[in-house]
Design goal:
Mean pLDDT: 92
Shape: globular
Helix content: 25-40%
Distance between the termini: 19 Å
Number of helices: 8
Low-confidence stretches: none
């Protein structure tokens, strides 16, 4: 088996020693090559080249951003039966994709799971989401593995990226402080979205839009945050949208999310297993996929793509 290990040395919990241990463990079972990323998009370029060269496995060692890049590289020319399998050894702060697949968030334990998958041939096909918008290069769409959104959550992602560019480390405290500021800004100047899903009329004047490809939507520290608990890699997309961001509504919604992970209410638009979600707005709004800020746009289509990718997992 030919395998490429893509390492992001800037990821939160990735270390040179951990990389060497992982490489040594893998080298006994596969014909291994290693790439350390040095620029944004490097992981995608390396994974795309591996797919072209007929590699059997591409392993992402980093955070969810590294995983997203590797997935987009593997699928740059679209899903194909002969595409490399994806392996994941977490090295970031949240590692949502790995957690949703049941892959241990500890790199040593995840390496053991990956080696067992290689030895026993255990794997699964999963569905992914795909985003089409004018801020996505090339018109091919951008793949996402666990969540995407337009508005408030993308405002948070954009704010965190600015803080990290100034040297701040990603942490629950950083996300929380940025989220409070982004929410306050949205209360002062609300965003207005129109949302469309299959078989229903439009939902107008929506305040925020979250799209899930699986459950959980994210993690806050070790706590799973669930918005669409019925959504999985085996079905369509989940939609969570609030019609208003007034304090009583948001407070009640957040309390439900934290208490039950199954939010409900008259101001909540929630759908599970939909084939697409289309979002429009008059003023440009921020867009994020898998915690990666893509830019500002006025129209987005999120599509569910079943059986898009093969992932190495435990039996």
């Amino acid at each position: 088996m030919r395998a490429l290990l893509v390492v992001n040395p800037q990821a939160t919990t990735t270390t040179a020693a951990g990389r060497d241990v992982l490489a040594h463990a893998l080298a006994s079972d596969v014909q291994l090559e290693i790439v350390q990323t040095s620029y944004r998009g490097h992981a995608a370029d390396a994974a795309s080249k591996a797919a072209e060269d007929g590699f059997d496995l591409v392993i992402a060692h980093g955070g969810d951003g590294t995983v997203n890049e590797v997935v987009n590289g593997i699928l740059r020319e679209g899903p194909r039966p002969n595409k490399p399998m994806l392996g994941v050894v977490p090295g970031g702060s949240a590692n949502v994709f790995a957690g949703a697949l049941g892959i241990p968030r500890d790199p040593v334990e995840a390496t053991h799971v990956l080696l067992q998958s290689i030895e026993h041939g255990t794997k699964r096909r999963i569905g992914l989401g795909q985003v089409f918008a004018d801020v996505v290069e090339g018109g091919r769409g951008r793949w996402f593995t666990f969540n995407a959104g337009m508005g408030l959550d993308a405002d948070v992602v954009a704010g965190v990226e600015k803080k990290r560019a100034k040297g701040r480390n990603a942490s629950p405290a950083l996300y929380l402080s940025v989220a409070f500021r982004a929410y306050a800004q949205n209360v002062r100047k609300p965003q207005h979205f129109t949302v469309e899903v299959p078989g229903e009329g439009q939902f107008n004047d929506v305040g925020m839009v979250f799209v899930s490809n699986t459950d959980p939507w994210t993690y806050f520290g070790d706590r799973a945050i669930q918005l669409n608990p019925s959504t999985s890699f085996d079905g369509g997309l989940g939609l969570t949208a609030l019609k208003t961001l007034r304090v009583p509504t948001v407070g009640r919604y957040v309390a439900q999310v934290l208490a039950t992970g199954n939010p409900k209410g008259g101001n909540l638009v929630r759908r599970d297993d939909v084939g697409y979600v289309r979002v429009k707005c008059e003023e440009p709004a921020n867009l994020q996929v898998d915690g990666d800020f893509l830019g500002r746009t006025t129209a987005v289509e999120f599509r569910a793509v079943p059986d898009a990718l093969t992932v190495a997992t435990h039996g």
